[in-house]
Amino acid sequence: MSDDDVPVLEARGLSKSYGHVRAMVDADFDLRAGEVLAVVGDNGAGKSTLIKVLSGAVVPDAGEIRMNGEPVAFRSPLDARERGIETVYQDLAVAPALDIAANLFLGRELRRPGVVGRLFRVLDGGAMRAEARRQLESLGVRIPDVRQPVETLSGGQRQSVAVARAAAFGTRLVIMDEPTAALGVRESRMVLDLIRRIRDRGLPVVLISHNMPQVFEIADRIHIHRLGRRAAVVTPGASSMREVVEIMTGAAAPAGEST
Ligand SMILES: Nc1ncnc2c1ncn2[C@@H]1O[C@H](COP(=O)(O)OP(=O)(O)OP(=O)(O)O)[C@@H](O)[C@H]1O
């Protein structure tokens, strides 16, 4: 097996119960290098629980996770972040009153060089603005001024800032939970294009989505979750939307994992 065949992120036998509710039951997961992997499933199928486990927000009761073949154990979102996993949550974690540059560096602010930054923790606004501009430009996000407060941006631009932040700090992969759920058609397009550019830059993306046309447009592979576990993995070229929905709802049994 070459290095390229080793999944970037892999999980086996993940389980998680909340009291009597079995949110995840012996679930598997594989994310390959350079792909957009969509995760789809009915309401309550356990997608969020899976993503929370992969991003360190929830500790599973059982199962193992590997990154590039190496076993990892995330006890907190910080553990996952330190490993290069960035997550964009549904409820946008942006600070509306702060400007775009400050939002990009939220929690990871750059300090002024030397004693001023080290001892007095003075922020380096110039460096953050320059880096924010560079990041947004490199991702093709068109925002006139990074000193603009985020609350003055459209929903699509805000989401683009959140996604750009994840892409800037995610060194291994980015997880996005329904990034277009609250957006209109034109704004969704902006974010989908951005996801594609992130993938093309070499950063694999896990995309949780209910939007089947978007999934079929952008995903390289589709992980179908059902009743707390992975029911199948299909490719948009080889399976139809109807087939995916049938597996999702249990109307059809998966024909075995096609990839
Ligand atoms: N913190 C929790 N406490 C109790 N039950 C939970 C908790 N989180 C999830 N569950 C339950 O676990 C099951 C799976 O939920 P999860 O949110 O992972 O599904 P989902 O596929 O993301 O659903 P949706 O698409 O509706 O967001 C559901 O029955 C849910 O009610």
Q: Biggest β-sheet, characterized?
A: 6 strands, mixed
Ligands in the model, by name, code or SMILES, are: adenosine-5'-triphosphate
| Span of the ends, CA to CA | 16 Å
Order of helices and strands: EEEHEEHEHHHHEHEHEEH
Globally, the shape reads globular
Helix content percent band: 25-40%
* Overall number of strands: 10
Number of helices: 9
Indicate the low-confidence ranges by residue numbers.
Answer: none
| Major β-sheet strand ordering | 6-7-8-3-9-10
Oligomer: single chain
Structural class: alpha/beta
Radius of gyration: 19 Å
Domain ABC transporter: 9-252
GO molecular function, one term: ATP binding
Organism: Georgenia wutianyii
InterPro entries: AAA+_ATPase, ABC_carbohydrate_import_ATPase, ABC_transporter-like_ATP-bd, P-loop_NTPase
List keywords for this structure.
259 residues; alpha/beta; six-stranded mixed β-sheet; four-stranded antiparallel β-sheet; 10 strands; 34% helix; 24% strand; binds adenosine-5'-triphosphate; ATP-binding; ABC_carbohydrate_import_ATPase; ABC_transporter-like_ATP-bd
